Amino acid sequence: MATPATVSVVIPAMNEAAAIGDVVRGLRSVADWHEIIVVDDGSTDGTAAVAGEAGARVIRHPYNKGNGAAVKTGIRAATGEHLLIIDADGQHQPADAVRLVEKLGEYDLVVGARSSETQANTIRRLGNEVLNRLASYLTEHPIPDLTSGFRAARLDCLREFLPLLPNGFSTPTTTTLCFLRAGYNVAFEPIKAKQRVGTPSKIRLSTDGPKFLLIMLRVMTIFSPLRVFLPVAGVFFAAGALYAAWTIATRHDVTDSSVLLILLAVVIVLVGLVSEQVSAQRIDGRR
Predict the structure, then answer these.
(1) In this structure, which CATH number among 1.10.10.410, 3.10.450.50, 3.40.50.80, 3.90.550.10 belongs to the domain 4-204?
(2) Which band of pLDDT confidence, cut at 50, 70 and 90, is reported for residue 224?
(3) 63-67, 156-160, 167-171, 235-239 — which is least confidently predicted?
(4) Alpha helices, DSSP H only, in the chain?
């Protein structure tokens, strides 16, 4: 079991001066952490000064790079054995941070899974539910909260996937999928998130939802390509077979379109098999 003394806390922050001080002080009040790092991602409202006064080590980006870039900066700068990532907006309770850390050792990644009633609104809840179900299918593991940014992990495991982490808001999605498909132990610890302090969430389902889907597909084609290729091939094969059956029954022949659809399905399966072999060699070589 990990202890807070081995944990570097990383808090990515942009224009969170209204909340960051309470977040840092709250964390310091519940445990003696190895260090608390606030990565100020180009804030213009004094976030860095408030965080420093509260007792955090502050690293500043000269301009806004994105939440993921801030997390990566914190991962590179951390000196603890384990890492805790927590949002700067005051949603997460410091006591929950200790609960997440206590599960490290048995688990390599522990995610704070928010209950549905504590998420922003109905549309966001529905959108997250769709993402959770799709991710659960792709990873063959139940995922109750794919996008939660509140998580604790072994630092060496996180650094293993550093090149795959995007600079935007999908770092939680990527890390969860990477840990699961790489065979690490992942746990989801139930938490209750509070109402955020300060500016509203910068994530928009209409614009960021498709990005999350692309991130999931990109990660899955790296770690488990057949989970993506086989369903696509199945759709084309079914379409070609059904169309062929219909033309045989009605016209007593098989059209070129049917043959092409079935051949396309075969090609997709073959590409998927090659990708699966490349993926296996990549993972084995890394380990």
Answers:
(1) 3.90.550.10
(2) confident
(3) 167-171
(4) 17-30, 47-54, 67-77, 94-102, 122-139, 155-160, 171-181, 205-223, 226-251, 256-286
